[in-house]
């Protein structure tokens, strides 16, 4: 939607109206907002000769221009299309919370129509009232002109608030994780089922954007009579869609964002951060610098034997060949230290072995002593056994003698 002049032919021949002119200069607040350049027009000319109106965008205009560029900032339009889908999901979920007979899916189509109408009518109303001098809406229109996504988000929030049922107004539910999960799940479901097609949401977002973008920051207002001139303009328009030229990147965006994207594109080939001669993709830079970069700082391979020099790994061969003798000396010194350590360890090992032998001998002596004691005790036990047997023999003899005497 744009604000247009009913009859351009009535304008004085000594001044021209810029294509981006949308509202009368006699409104001080809005003229400051728009900062329109060009010759000033007498206030009485506007008041007596022109009426201003809000009209939907169309391919055929009353001012004689048959074609508009109408290209928009794709980044802003994409953000607005996402807001529209989330707004529909939120309103559908909140309006059916706790309702046993309705679900978010069953009311989505109706809510979508209501949301579209609300946004278009509300936007038209705000613009008209601002043009007619309504100071109350000037700040909101200013936000729409400079921060359209925030403007749309505010309108959607107002619509969602109007759709909440009694249960949805419970503060605990509004901030609950369950509600947020339901909204997220329903958004995914609508995308899969194409409840609100991306192209339709995009058209709605572009219509709203063109209505509130009074400064023409986010869309192109240029108009042409001839189609070939329109085609030529669109091939150079700052809002034309272009693709990233970096190999491997499939991103597309409005031409106005080329530099912005180029500054963050992961496929952009950049000079090595460590100043080697290679160009590396931004996303591979960290890996390159940490592994194969010739300028990566490394320690000498002979670091552990004494060479503590650090240098770019690309200079490894030169370093090793230049300090060959030094490295050999380090190796010999380390070998000598190693041999001394080995001798010391051998001596310690021998002492340990001797100590172990002494322990074994001591243990052996203890075993022999115990063996002798056991043998002595065994001999005593055997002697006692023999004595017992002798006493038993004597007892039997006495018994026999006693029996023989009585007979």
UniProtKB/TrEMBL annotation:
SUPFAM superfamilies: TRAF domain-like. The keyword Metal-binding applies. It comes from the Eukaryota. GO terms for molecular function: zinc ion binding. The keyword Transport does not apply. Transmembrane segments: none annotated. Pfam families: zf-TRAF (PF02176). Residues 367-401 form a coiled coil. Keywords: Coiled coil, Metal-binding, Zinc, Zinc-finger. A zinc finger (TRAF-type) spans 261-312. Residues 261-312 form the TRAF-type domain. InterPro entries: Znf_RING/FYVE/PHD, Znf_TRAF. This is TRAF-type domain-containing protein. It comes from Paspalum notatum var. saurae.
């Amino acid at each position: 939607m744009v604000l247009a002049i009913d009859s351009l032919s009535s304008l004085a021949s000594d001044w021209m109206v810029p294509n981006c002119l949308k509202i009368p200069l006699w409104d001080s607040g809005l003229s400051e907002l728009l900062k329109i350049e060009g010759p000033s027009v007498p206030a009485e000319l506007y008041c007596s000769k022109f009426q201003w109106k809000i009209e939907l965008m169309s391919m055929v205009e009353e001012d004689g221009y048959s074609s508009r560029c109408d290209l928009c900032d794709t980044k802003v339009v994409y953000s607005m299309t996402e807001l529209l889908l989330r707004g529909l999901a939120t309103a559908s979920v909140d309006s059916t919370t706790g309702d046993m007979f309705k679900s978010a899916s069953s009311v989505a189509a109706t809510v979508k129509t209501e949301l579209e109408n609300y946004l278009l009518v509300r936007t038209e109303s705000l613009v008209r009232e601002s043009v007619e001098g309504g100071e109350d809406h000037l700040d909101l229109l200013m936000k729409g002109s400079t921060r359209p996504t925030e403007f749309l988000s505010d309108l959607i929030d107002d619509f969602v608030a109007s759709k909440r049922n009694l249960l949805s107004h419970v503060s605990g539910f509004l901030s609950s994780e369950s509600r947020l999960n339901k909204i997220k799940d329903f958004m995914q479901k609508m995308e899969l089922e194409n409840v609100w097609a991306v192209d339709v949401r995009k058209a709605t977002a572009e219509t709203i954007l063109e209505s509130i973008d009074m400064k023409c920051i986010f869309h192109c207002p240029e108009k042409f009579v001839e189609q070939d001139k329109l085609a030529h303009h669109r091939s150079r328009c700052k809002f034309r869609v272009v693709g990233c030229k970096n190999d491997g990147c499939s991103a597309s965006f409005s031409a106005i964002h080329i530099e912005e994207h180029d500054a963050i594109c992961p496929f952009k080939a950049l000079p090595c951060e460590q100043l080697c001669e290679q160009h590396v993709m931004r996303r591979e830079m960290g890996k390159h610098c940490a592994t194969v970069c010739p300028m990566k700082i490394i320690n000498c391979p002979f670091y552990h034997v004494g060479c503590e020099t650090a240098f770019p790994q690309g200079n490894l061969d030169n370093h090793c060949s230049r300090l060959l003798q030094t490295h050999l000396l380090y190796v010999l010194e380390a070998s000598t230290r190693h041999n001394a350590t080995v001798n010391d360890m051998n001596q310690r090992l021998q002492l340990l072995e001797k100590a172990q032998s002494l322990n074994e001998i001591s243990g052996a002596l203890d075993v022999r002593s115990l063996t002798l004691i056991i043998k002595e005790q065994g001999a005593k036990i055997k002697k006692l056994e023999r004595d017992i047997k002798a006493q038993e023999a004597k007892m039997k003899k006495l018994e026999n003698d006693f029996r023989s005497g009585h007979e």
